Amino acid sequence: MNTAKEEVKELLDKLPDDCSLEDVQYHLYVVEKIRKGIDRAEKEGVAGQEEVERKLGKWTSK
Question: Within 10 A of 38 (CB to CB), how many other CB atoms are there?
Answer without folding.
Answer: 10
